Amino acid sequence: MGRKNTLPRPATAAPVPAPPPEAPRPIAVVDMGASAIRLVVAEAASDGPVHILEEVSRGVLLGKDTFTHGRLGPATVEATLKAMEGFRRIMDTYGVVRYRAVATSAVREAQNRETFLDRVRLRTGIDVEVIDGSEENRLTYLAVREKLKGHEALASGDALLVEIGGGSADISFLRKGEPIHSGTYALGSIRMRQNLANWHGSHEQRTRLLRRHVQNVVGDIRREMPLREAKHFIALGGDVRFAALRILGEPHAGENGFRVVEREPFLQFCEELAAADVEQLGKVLAAIGDAVSSTS
Question: What is the spatial distance between Cα 275 and Cα 223, in angstroms, rounded to a whole number?
Answer without folding.
Answer: 25
